[in-house]
Each structure stands twice: as C-alpha cells, then as structure tokens.
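User: I'm curious whether this sequence folds into something compact or stays loose and floppy. Could you predict its structure so I can see for myself?
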Amino acid sequence: MNRTLRVRQAQTVVPFGVGAVFDIQGESFVATGIGDWPRARLPVDSPRLASRLGVSGFYSAPATLNDRYDRPDAPGAPYIRFPAWLFCGSCRRMVRWRITDEKPGTPPRCPSCSPVRRLTPMRFVQICAAGHLGDVDWWFWAHARRDAAARQACGSRERLRFRVSERAAGLEALSVGCTAPGCGASRDLLDVLGTHGMRCSGRNPWQRLAEAADCARPVQVVQRTAGNLYYPLVHSALSIPESGLPAPADEALAERVRASDFWVPLCRVAGTPRAGVFRQMIQEDTGADDALLDALLAEETGTSAPAGAGEAAAATGPVRPDLSVEEWAAFMAPDPPLTRDFSLRESGLGLDAETAGPWAGLRRLTGRVVLADRLREVRALSGFTRVSPDAAVVPADTSGRLRWLPAVEVYGEGMFLTLDHGALTAWERNARVRARVAAMAGDLDRSFQKDRLQALTGEELSPRFVLLHTLAHLLVRQLSFESGYTTASLRERVYARPGHDQYGILVYTAAGDAEGTLGGLVQQGEPPRLAETLLRMTEAAAWCSADPLCSEHSGQGFGNLNRAACHACALLPETSCETGNTLLDRVLVVGGAGVPGYFESLVAEARAAAVREGTAP
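Assistant: Here's the prediction. I'll summarize afterward.
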C-alpha cells in the first residue's frame, strides 16, 4: 500500500534538519546535505543574518505533499533510509537495505515471509566525535568473541538473525546471531552501548564512498533516538526595516569621524590588531566614543566589533556584525517602526504615580514596554555536531561547494520589556551580586561552551545578563499559564550587553504559517494584564518546591553553570532558550543567600500587602 511521508517546511531546519535521524510511520530516515536539495528551492531574504554568517543567502525547501524519501523525482527535501539494517518481526531475519531495493511509495518488506511483513529499522547506530554516522557492523558484533580464524571461516556477512529470548529481560534478551552454515556465532546486546573498537566509516549516510575521510576517532554505539546523536547549530535574526533604525545621535560628529585622515585606514584593517591604533587616533581627534565608531564601522564595512576586539578577531577569523545591536535600537526607537513584517507599538504597565504597595515597586523597577503585533524571524542551520556540543562541526553542505544555507521564515508576535536603567545600574554595583556572578563566570571559563555562550553574553558575564536571562525564563513560565501558549511555543531574546547599554528582554512566539500567530501573547502584554503577570511571576519565583536545596545550590545543571535554577522553578524546553538552559540564577531576581535580588523589595511589599489584607497563607 502506498503511503505519504511529509515533513513540514518549518521543520526542515529544526528538528529535522541536515543530519537529523527521525522516525515517521514506523520507518527511519536521515536528512541529507543541502547539496542534494532540489533546484526548485525557495529564497529566504535576511541580509543581516547572511552578513552575520558570511554566506550569500538562504533557501528553504519547497512545500510539498510528499518529500523525497524513496522517490528520486519528488520536489521536497531529500531524505534517505537509515539505518540500512532492518529486521523482520516475524522470522527475525536481518536485511541490509540498499537504495536499489527501494520501491517508490512502498515501505520495505521481508523477502522471506508470506503473507508479506514490513521490516523494522534496527534500534542502534554508531557515531563519532567527528560528526560521522553509520550502521553498526552487526556481523562484527556477532563474531567479536571468535578468533580470527573462526571469523574468516564464516562464509557470509549478511546471514544474520535478530533474536529475542524469553529467559532474560532488557538488552540481555536481544541478540544478533549468524546463520551461515557451520558458524552459529551469536552475542547478546547487554553491553552494546558505548565503544567497542569498531571502525568509523568516515562519512555520513548520504555521502558517497569517495567522500569518506580517514577517521581514526573511536565510535560510540547509541540508540538512533539518543540525545547526543544530533546537536544542530541554528542561528536566527529578526527582520528589521532599515527605516526603523535610528541614525547616529550626533551626525556632525559622525561626519568629523568620516573626514578623519585615519578613517579609511581603520576601515581597511577593521577586525585586526592594527585597528585599535587607528581607533585611538580618531577618538583623540574627534572625541567619538566606542559606540559611535562601532555603528559607523558596521555601516561602512558590514562588521561590528567592540573596541579592543581586534586581536581576538585576528585570532578567530572575520568579525561578524552583532545582530542584537540593531534589534535593540529598533525596539528602543522613539517612534517604533511599522511594516508588514515588523509592527511595534509602545505600551506600558498602566500604573500611575499614585499607585501604592507592590504596584509602586513594580513601576519603579521596570522601564519600557513595547508590543510586537507582528514579527518575522529567519532561522538558519549552519551545521551540526554529534557526541557532544563542542565536537567537530559538520557543515550543512558536506561537499563544501555551496555558499548558501537552509533556512525557514516564521511569523509571530511578542512583548519587549526593559528594566529601569538607574535601578539596574545601582543593583549591579552591589559587591555581593558581583561576587556571585563572578563565581558563575569562573565556571563558564572552564566550560567547553565558553566560546558559544560568550557570543551571546559579551566578553564577560555580567550580572545584568544573568538577571535578565532568568527573568525571561520566569516570564515565559508564567505566560504559559495565562497567554494560551505552551512554554515550548515561546522563545526568548536577551539584550544585556553592557558595552551597548542594553537592559531588556523579548518574549515572542512564531509559527511557520504566513498569517503568524493568534495574538494571545500581545493581548497578555496590554495593561493591566502585564503588571499582574509580573507580580504573580515574582511571587511564584520566591519559592521553589526544591528549596532550600535549589536556592542554596553552588552549581547545578549542565557544566554547573546554573545556581538557583531547576526544572521546578526556572528551566524551559531547549528550543525556548538561547543558551541551552544555562546561566540562570533565581536568587538574583528575588534575593536569598545574603544576596539582594533585583525584585526582592517587590516580593517583600507583596507579602506585606497580603498580611494587611488578611490573604497571606
């Protein structure tokens, strides 16, 4: 019976992007490299993200009713069957399936059984830290405990059976045996997971034999749905109209910078150690600050690097523009831009100067509220890793010939919130706050994720980043109860670079439909709903079901990069967080352990008000 296999267009980047293994209707496939994509792909426009990643552009797979699984001429994204080793649930025969065995629209069937039985993919595959993926050598596994002479005496490498024993349980009950005449080798799967001296194929399943590398890294046998099989590298950018970006505050000063004798030499050596010398000369002549120079360099060269970053840039490669700078400027513009793909309007908490109690504290500690009725976001996949996030990156184009990346565009809505700049600056100067964040920064320096996370946090981990990041998580969790969206549907963008004077967060949702989402998130940001949400958020964050263990923890989570943050109080689904659920600390929000929290006074005022009203628990 023919069947239809389809992956939604928005899923061709995450979670079913290049290199991902996934099950669909009882069959297992792997997404191939973009070199195999059809020519009828659709362009996706995002100049800012293209400049950031150093590529010529982006394309998305065409939307289709039937993707290219076993149909070579199908117009959709290409996928191939993996693993190639299948077995029959009736006769237990193992079959090595080849591309020539495929019949369009028909799942694999056992050649021995009558009536016909469908074949099932084997549960285990092998991976290595170089990003390679392959089938387990089941013949080697079955004969691993035989000597070399006995292995050579076996007459066939494909006469295998995948057996189940009723005398054991778990993996010990499963075994792979050889049915070649005179052989009878067999071995159970009790210790199949891990490394066993098998050789790496040096390639991924969609690559040809000529593309295989000489890989000497040890392979690991894992389940094909294991979490460490696939770590995608996804980048995203909001579509911001150029007309919505503010010009430099002092255009006359900008003209003096451009007229300087050192301006052209600075543009030529931007991103190198020599750039610092020319920057200093221009600043001495004109009095321009680092922010203005960064903005003018970004305009002139398409790159943006903080002052003093030249040596680091020379060591790591070309300097790419910081996307958060322009996004922050658009949200903070006095007149928010209004276009089809980026529609903003300024709002507020609806609290006036006569407000008392915790509402007055909330008004004092928060700043600007901007509602985004419509956002367009482009998400691009640059590559992936296997085994661990810091392993070797496999590019989306394994052939290395293409200058574009796969991407999708999604539409949605969101709310942008800033803190009060003066209150935040005063809180950041507290010695106990700085000492607590310094301890987290020490753990970050020892983490293998240091480079990736510093690209989001800036050169140094600042108290405002941890505070705003944790605040975004707490707000997403609270909004999931009140806006109608699940936590997996909401995402965060943290704007907390002290060098660019950022101090806000964006919580948004986006979907692949061109009409965007339903408006429930923006409605929740209207006054007075947002103020009520923030107050309930701080009250809920003041207590965790894992306290006091959670609030007093000196290091938990991945790489000990969290403090007071666990699944019961602050963590989100991985797709919702920019940093993979790291660099979180609830204490910096509500206080505790002798450290003043930014919203600690708000929690105290709310509790006092509850006591006065007789509603305290």
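Summary: The chain is about 30% helix and 20% strand. The first strand starts at residue 21 and ends at 24.
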